[in-house]
Amino acid sequence: MLAGFRAALGAPSVAMAATFLGFGAAVAAAGLGLGWALAAGAVVYGMPGQLILLGGVAGGAPWPAVASAIAANARFLPMAVAIAPWLGARRWIALPFIAVTPWAGSMRVLPALPAPERLPWFMGFALGCWGTALCACAAGYALAPMLPGWLLALLVFANPIYFGLLLAMDRATGRRAGQPLGAAAAGRMGVAGGGVAGRHAGLSVAPMTDANLALLALILACQALRAAGLWLAGGLRADHPFIRWAGSVAVATLAAFIVLAVVAPAGVLATIPWPARVLGAVTALGVLLAPGERVLAALLSGLGVTGMIWWMLVSSAGGQG
Q1: 164 pLDDT band (50/70/90 cuts)?
Q2: Rounded distance, CA 22 to CA 28, Å?
Q3: At what angle do helices 208-233 and 62-72 cross, to 10 degrees?
Q4: Phi/psi of residue 311, each to 5°?
Q5: pLDDT by residue (tens digit) across 212-249?
Q6: What are the structural domain ranges in the chain?
Q7: pTM for the whole thing?
Q8: How far is CA 115 from the centre of its chain?
Q9: How far is 20 from 156, CA to CA, in rounded Å?
Q10: What pLDDT does 180 receive?
Q11: How far is CA 288 from CA 174, 264, 301, 302, in A?
């Protein structure tokens, strides 16, 4: 378990911390409690759905948002199907932790480990990511008054950049969609920040009872999707056509997520000028493809270039004005 935990303390934790810091701040700005933020992060544990639900609650329409959030997090089902053969008979203890970052990191490592070490490695990696996410969420909630909108946008942008780097690493090493080391899935562009809009003035927060009930409904749906995936996998081997199909679905949805995040995002990511998004993504990819597969350096470089280009564009527009 310790080996998996150590593996999480790098680019995975940075990506999780950045995204959940932004989510915590967005929940505070929407007028919801810290408990709501932590419950969403700990048990929904799927950023696209979390942000969609937050947007609906902040806008006073939580129930339509629940349906959209469930659709965005439907990726949990094929992800659970694909990882189940590598977790063994006791895989059910991993159910709450099946999410994009733990899934992607584990699918790159588990096939090379002896069978008895796979589940402990996954749990160590997943708990490292999960703990980082919750600490960052609480920190973002506390720091919300001090975080400007542009910083929140960059924090959320770390999510698609990181997933893009994972997919690029798989392609660079010649892995095919659906193979054990395939990349992870993500929902549609709910992660692009619909919920973060709650920090803007003029939004009416739904009654707290509705907000809590909507969150509970999403929690139950997400856990059911994970459970259904583990159950459907049954005792199938990792090379079974159904398992490969599930991996292919995961990779395809991830690719769609990345393209939409960079080319046509919604919500807070749309506030980042498109040249900054594109150049930031290209920079991250260039650093990754240099010798060494430096994922953390690539992620930080991409975010740095995105912020720098954004600042230059804003400064140029201000100077012309």
Answers
A1: confident
A2: 10
A3: 20
A4: -60, -40
A5: 999 999 999 999 999 999 999 988 888 888 888 887 88
A6: 2-267
A7: 0.79
A8: 27
A9: 8
A10: 42
A11: 15, 23, 10, 10
Is the pLDDT at 75 greater than 90, yes or no? no
Tokens 């949805």 belong to residue: 253
Task: Supply 264's token pair.
Answer: 């046509």
CA 89 → CA 78, 224, 235, 236, 251, distances in Å?
Answer: 18, 19, 8, 11, 25
Q: What is the DSSP letter of 147?
A: -
- Give the CB-side neighbour count of residue 18, counting CA atoms within 13 A: 23
Structure tokens of 149? 């909108």
User: Hunting for tokens 């059911």 — which residue is that?
Assistant: 224
Instruction: Examine the pLDDT at 86 and tell me if it is beyond 70.
Output: yes
Q: What are the φ/ψ torsions at residue 130 (nearest 5 degrees)?
A: -65, -45
CA distance 102 to 287: 23
CA–CA dist 213, 190 (Å, integer): 20
Burial of 157 (0-12, 13-18, 19+ CB in 10 A): buried
DSSP single-letter state for residue 294: -
Ranges of H-type helices in the chain:
2-8, 11-29, 34-39, 47-58, 62-72, 76-87, 100-107, 115-143, 149-172, 208-233, 241-263, 274-289, 295-320
In one-letter notation, the amino acid at residue 246 is: A
Those residues with Cβ within 8 angstroms of residue 177's Cβ, 6 or more apart along the chain or in another chain: 247, 248, 251, 252
Residues 228 and 77: beta-carbon distance below 8 Å:
yes
pLDDT score, position 202: 42
Residues 135-147 pLDDT 10s: 999 999 999 989 8
Q: Is 179 within 8 Å of 185 (Cβ atoms)?
A: no
pLDDT for position 319:
62
